[in-house]
Amino acid sequence: MIAIWPENMIEAFDAAEQKFAAKEFAVAEQSIGYSELCKNVRRLAAIFQQRGVKQGDSVVFSTQDDMLASTIFIALLRCGITAIFLDSETRSLRANHLINLVKPELVILDESIAESWQIAGKDKIIPIRKTKKSILNLLLRRKTQDGSLGGLMENASMAELPAHIDASLVAYVLFTSGTTSDPQGVCITHRALFSHLKTLSRVYGLTPESKILNTLMLSHADGIIQGPVLAFYNAACWFRPFRFRVKHIEDILDTIYRERITHFIAVPTILSLLCQLGNCANNSFDNGAFAMTVSCGAQLEVALWAEFEKKFNNRIVNVYGLTETVAGGIFAGPDDVSHQMGTIGKPVDCEVRIVDENGRDKAPGEQGELLVKSDSLTIGYFKAPEATRGILKDGWLYTGDIAAQTEEGCYKILGRRKAIVISGGINIHPGEVNEVLLTHPSVAESETLGEPDPVWGEHVVSAVSLKAAGSVSEVDLISYCRTHLEEKKVPLAIYILDSLPRGRSGKVQIEALKAAICELKRPEQMKLSSAEATILEVAATCLKKDVKSLSLDSSEEDLPEWDSLAHLILVAEVERIFSIKLSPAEVIRIKSLRDLLTLCTRKAEDMP
Q1: Chain center to CA of 318
Q2: Which of 206, 337, 342, 439 has its CA 20 to 30 A from that of 430?
Q3: Could you read off the pLDDT of 290-314 as tens digits, one per residue?
């Protein structure tokens, strides 16, 4: 079947509704076909019309139901309404600030999120009531009169949809990390979105027969755009059987083989975990249909790139892009010419320049700031003209990345001008973390930076000085951050110093700060009486919890702090202390501290 590449959302929707209605759109815990998807889009359109929401207006939404989130996003695109998708982990202060900034005509939220955020103007809120199954699978089974989204959709008619959508309208706004006082909402128009969807589809060779496996966060561009939106654009099938966690490493490989996946979209962290913990003996990628693995979201190191391709015998297409470029722009692969390890390849459907601080072009081999120009660029940051002028000049996007062109004509990223920590493919602005820490009454000054991590690329750490010595502990500050920051932004460690090293200009000297942190990190001998006590103490340290709050029955299910990063840190520390080595299968099977204790004692007994 040949590819169809629509020019706009109307063409894409018409193809899905008329030509591909019998196909599956998404396969997950609750799957949905194109016929059901299109009907739900029309039901949502009816609700928007009833609420007086029209083209050019905005709707904020947030839900942990991924199938519903993708349906809402596609419905808003089809109606010409600006979609503003907020991460469900966003904390109340930031969420309220963003919603007050946007002033949306409608807000759609999980009831638990609405309760947590406590947003004013409840008449604009449509709650999403939690059910055992997704509300998309319950429609038409019963009629209810409640004001929840499920109830409204059950009673909604099939609305007529707009016959025209202005390409200059903002299709969506994604708020990347930034301080509360300076949030960065990237505005992408319909013209930019559909220009780039065509580029991605052509580079990846997508058709209606493609099967895209993407388990990345939907509230980020690589998740929502390179997952459900890219699949919808091509009338392809999007696979999302679970949200990514370390325990799903084998499941990813099984899914690729069993479902005959053609395209696997991942960040380098996932590729690293597959190399470390995945079993390649089953030839998962040799499924008779697989086309490529796409690495996005963060820099792909040469060693990982080579190891993955050798271990799994499939080519990686390394993609460079920003939220400001929709998703990509420069591609290393799939062709042989641009497939140069250690580079981001060559631009497709865009122009690239390397310039010095005065905007003068640099010669090949010389480093400078990477500039990009294309039809798929952002028009700027939401209600932030000054920030927009800082990144868009004469049609060029100033990426903030330092790069150089190789002799083969490919481009290589050498560093960053802007202070961003990229952890597991997620951009984290140190300023946002500092802003939260400085609101703590005991903190006098704060500096946040990224530390290299072999799996996650970087992890976040902070250093603070206190107004009064001993007034607060690291664990207390970690807990405070958790109440104001999404879990992925919470520092892995917070180091308390007498003062932060500053130069004559008053700026914190980063290298001196790193040296001070290294001194604090010198390992100390743990004096513990038993293996059980050791496990609890190590877990408390790695999870940043009070040891009294933990027991051997503590598990990843009841500890939100126990995410994929914490899991690997915990395992590595236990291996070091007990002088053992756990196999990939054992690492994945660990669900509780009791599981970890059992493995450690068994391994220790087996030691010669």
Answers
A1: 17
A2: 342
A3: 999 999 998 898 989 999 999 999 9
